[in-house]
Amino acid sequence: MANNRLFHCVKRAKALKTVPALIELGVNPHETDDKGRTLLHYAAEQGHLPLVDYLVNTVKIHPNIQDHDGQTAMHMAATQHRVAIVKTLSAAGGDVNATDKVGLRPLHMAAIYGHITMASTLVDKGADIFATSYAAGGHGNLTAREAALLANQPKMAQVLGAIERIAKLKLAKQQEASQSLPPEPVFICSHDDVNTPMKTKENQKS
Q1: Domains present along the chain, CATH in parentheses
Q2: Secondary-structure breakdown of the chain: helix, strand, coil percentages, each rounded to the nearest 5
Q3: What does the pLDDT look like over 87-124, one tens digit per residue?
């Protein structure tokens, strides 16, 4: 019952005051509901930035804990276009490449819902632009760009396509640079060199 109140409080504007008070009364902030979600999932989904910061940095709820569908708070924030919360979760160790049960990542969620700023933020935080899902609505091996096309988000697909091209150019330049490096010099010592004693000041005088 107490935890029901705790989850309900997240939807209120005064959650930052109410949740700590309930925790002080002994309510366990790490418990999950029937969907396997924690307070952090709901705080991220609802856009309560101060509460998210409190939960990950003071209460120490793990930012990558997954619900029964395998989704993290990062997935929730990406779906609801909570850019500031994604940044806070990332700074606290949240994984921008976390996968749910069907292999969807936060970037896939942003792509499906057409959140361009969110997608750019996730890529900036290290999201893999080429990562594919396991299956999504019967469609497997989808990149975020392909998921955007399937979800009828042409502008998002265009943006992600441009990011893919930039990423491929950077990768090609890195490979070209590594191949153009001169080979490291190899020093070969002969048998005589190995067995020849080093000259010291004493034996030079003699």
Answers
A1: 1-95 (1.25.40.20), 99-182 (1.25.40.20)
A2: 55, 0, 45
A3: 999 999 999 999 999 999 999 999 999 999 999 999 99
